[in-house]
Design a protein that fits this description.
This protein is an alpha+beta fold. The chain has a single domain, classed as Sandwich (Jelly Rolls). Helices cover 13% and strands 31% of the residues. The protein contains four helices and nine strands. The strands form two sheets. Strands 1, 2, 3, 5, 6, 7 and 8 form a seven-stranded antiparallel beta sheet that branches. The longest helix is centred in the first third of the chain and has 14 residues. It is globular.
Length: 202
């Protein structure tokens, strides 16, 4: 997988979701991942989290289902990451009257990821992977693990800060989780504000 420069995603200095989708579709074809027609619309979303650094900080996502219930509900989510791309560090907290803290598990379908978390007994970071400069000083995690296709990991602690970075060939990851609500999403980067679009959550 070729790692594209930031200029590719910011023609005329503005982030282009169209260019982002083009790169993700290229990765999907690389892995022979079927591309449904619905991915051309708002169902497939590609934020740069207003960081202006999509090659390092961003993601593609499709939420297959997101249903709320008193016991936590359920969510099915497909995550797409270009080579070396990071989802910013975040946590999912409980919101009274809305939802309990979200639980998550991730199955790597294609490629590989480095999964970052906080452990009571820190293991440090896997050699060779670096947190992007724009995020590094705001991250509080202390451990990472490498996962390859067919391997699964999950949140160990409620409201735990976590994130993932794709390996050199990018990654396609299926997330199994309880209900997601934007009100429950917390980022450690002080300038980062992001909500999943309502049409993607439906």
């Amino acid at each position: 997988m070729e790692r594209k420069p930031n200029e590719f995603f910011y023609p005329n200095g503005k982030f282009s979701e169209e260019k982002a989708k083009e790169a993700y579709f290229e990765m999907m074809n690389y892995y022979n991942y079927p591309i449904p027609e619905s991915f051309s619309g708002d169902k497939f979303w590609c934020p740069d989290f207003d960081m202006g650094d999509f090659v390092n900080v961003g993601m593609g996502g499709v939420i297959w289902v997101n249903h709320n219930h008193d016991d936590g509900g359920y969510m099915g989510h497909e995550i797409f990451l270009l080579p070396g791309q990071m989802i910013p560090e975040h946590a999912h907290v409980a919101v009274e009257g809305v939802c309990p803290a979200k639980k998550e598990a991730w199955l790597v379908r294609h490629g590989s990821i480095y999964n970052f978390s906080i452990k009571k007994e820190p293991t440090g970071f896997v050699d060779g992977v670096e947190i992007p400069e724009s995020q590094r000083e705001h991250c509080v995690v202390n451990s990472s693990d490498k996962l390859v296709a067919g391997e699964l990991d999950y949140l160990k602690t409620e409201s735990e800060m976590h994130f993932m970075i794709a390996g050199p060939e990018g990654a396609i990851v299926t997330e199994f989780a309880t209900y997601h609500d934007n009100k429950a999403l917390r980022f450690t980067h002080p300038k980062l504000q992001f909500e999943i679009k309502d049409e993607a959550l439906s």
